[in-house]
Amino acid sequence: MPSISPRFRFLNVRPWAALSVAVVAAQAVASGVAVGTSASGSLFGHGSGPYLPPHVVSAVIGLGLLALTPRLWRGTRAAVPLTVGGLVALAAVSAAGGGYGEAAIETCLASLLVLGRGGFAIGCRNRPRMPMVCAAIGAWGAAYCALLAAPLVSGGAGHTLGRVLHHSLVHPLRIGSAARLNGDWTSVIEALIVCAALTSALALRSLVRPAAGVNRHFELEERAARAIIDRHGRDSLSPFVLRPDKALAFAAGGVLSYRLIGATAIVSSDPVAPEAAAPAVLERFMAVAHQRGWRVVVWGASGRHLEEYRRLGLRAVCAGEEAFVDPQKFTLEGRPVRKLRQSVNRVARRGWQVEVREGRQIDAALESEIDALEADWRSRQRHLLGFAMGMGGFESEVRAEDLYVLARSPEGELGAVMRFVEHCGNLSLATMRRARETPNGLNEALVARALTLARERGVGQVSLNYAGLAHLVRNQPARSRARRRLIRAAMAPLCARFQMERLVRFNDKFSPEWRPRYLVYESRATLPIAIVRVLQAEGYLPERSVRDAPQSSRALPRPLAGSPRAKEVG
Predict the structure, then answer these.
(1) Structure-model confidence comparison of residues 127 and 164, the more confident one
(2) In this structure, what DSSP letter does residue 441 have?
(3) Who has greater pLDDT, 424 or 272?
(4) What does the buried/exposed string (b/e) look like for 354-371 if buried means 16 or more CB atoms within 10 Å of the residue's CB?
């Protein structure tokens, strides 16, 4: 979708059009119900016969327009002609009833929608849910049959079955005379009409719903993405693009991965692409996503492409920081790392042995030990967290270039495993697993051993953990004691829930460089739902099951392997 210059953002017609249509539709529904019930308490009004009065038709149209207003707010293109048709029909009903002022307003609103239709660029599925359509047709058919039978039920003179059928063909909306109906039968007709109106509104809404998606990728796509990542994946989050429950999108020689939750496509970190091509990959994907009726959020974006993202009309907010360590500067000597050195020495004094293996050195026996530790660890976890910075709840895939740091107890049992994935000569911490009983400081000892080996091998940088909102935890005001207390009080529930302070304290032991990570979103109006969707993807909020789009005739491959958990301190 083409971006709008900031100086012309006030010309955005979508929210104003949606609000205006909502007001007109709500007024039509309210007035239609009020006219019918004010005198007799019946939807049909006092003394009306078995037919659909104008105020009932107006209420039904208004209900359909209300169903379309959320899609107008989103900018769904297909909702515009449907809304214009509804407004024209509503204006005709209003004019027939003598409401020329209301008809003029509804006609003008329809005209303005036609003129501003260029501002509605979001696509949709363009296909309603057939069960809902069938239910609506059945409900209207039942309501019409009830209207057809109304003269017979009312017991009026001369209302034979043949006469009723004759009038039903000549006057479809007025069957028989205007005799007063039996109260119970009127209630049945009203209930059927209300049911038909509601199901019609739901069927109309399903017509303009976003397209479904597939939250997985094919084996051929994974091989193509793996080649791109091996060549251009310099970001610490690039290896996690291949998480099996993410779909892949290719463009401009690059790739990005995303997960669809609701109508929001959550892109996992920056696209992996040749130099300066990442924004082009995101731009192409946004165009496709908008055609399908999706909004786009980038979670865990770095600061390298923020200016290009802003040129695409996107916004960004810092969501946390990631700790990077330069192995060439890492040392266990000196007073600043005294506590870290003590932790490493304490683990060694207790008889624990720390060793490092490459993925190519993992044999079947050791892999079985790692799998057993993984199964025991998972049995103690309520939820598996992580999205952009982890591989989720999937089986481990041993890759030759990855590093495994292992800790064995004095009895020789495997007590902890730490895995670092390799990408373009750098390392990124992927998983940390520990047995039930391990000494304090074991994680510190494993990380220190990995950093020492990385220094010996000339590794450029090692990414440790991402800490959400770490910039707020670390950068508290130094002078204002009141502000510090206020920030701590506000952050306390978040720190307890998201382990922010714990991660910050752990990472600070290695004197890292903190680099911000961003949440990139489309507009301020979409920011709240973007935050909710990201928390669902990360596992902090429950996620509704997403029904995938129908697949082509080619068979899906077996589930692709990956690393089992987000980065965290165990």
Answers:
(1) 127
(2) T
(3) 272
(4) bebbebeebeeebeeebe
Query: What average pLDDT does range 142-152 have in this prediction?
Result: 73
| Residues 371 and 222 sit within 8 Å (Cβ to Cβ) | no
Buried b (16+ CB within 10 A) or exposed e, 84-107: bebbbbbbbbbbebebeebbebbb
Per-residue pLDDT at 243 exceeds 60: yes
Chain-centroid distance, C-alpha 352: 44
**Contact partners, residue 392, CB within 8 Å, separation at least 6:** 243, 244, 245, 384, 386, 562, 564, 565, 566
Closest of 489, 502, 375 to residue 436, by C-alpha = 375
Task: Name the fold adopted by 329-458.
Answer: Aminopeptidase (3.40.630)
| Dist. CA 44–CA 522, nearest whole Å | 46
Average pLDDT over residues 94-118: 89
Say how far apart CA 343 and CA 329 lie, in whole Å.
19
Chain Cα centroid distance, residue 114: 31
Amino acid at 528: P
In whole angstroms, give the CA distance from residue 327 to residue 330.
5
pLDDT over 50 at 11, yes or no:
no
For 515, phi and psi rounded to 5 degrees?
-120, 135
Report which DSSP code applies to 478.
S
Range of lowest pLDDT (314-318, 382-386, 411-415)? 382-386
Question: Per residue in 539-552, is it b (16+ CB within 10 Å) or e — as a string?
Answer: beeeeeeeeeeeee
Are the C-beta atoms of residues 360 and 400 closer than 8 Å to each other?
Answer: yes
Domain at 219-323+515-538, CATH homologous superfamily = Gcn5-related N-acetyltransferase (GNAT) (3.40.630.30)
Q: What is the DSSP letter of 122?
A: B
Domain with CATH 3.40.630.30 in the chain: 219-323+515-538, 329-458
State the pLDDT at residue 124: 86
Burial class (CB in 10 A: 0-12, 13-18, 19+), 55: buried
Residue pair 406/416 in contact by the 8 Å Cβ criterion: yes
Phi, psi angles (nearest 5°) of residue 390: -160, 170
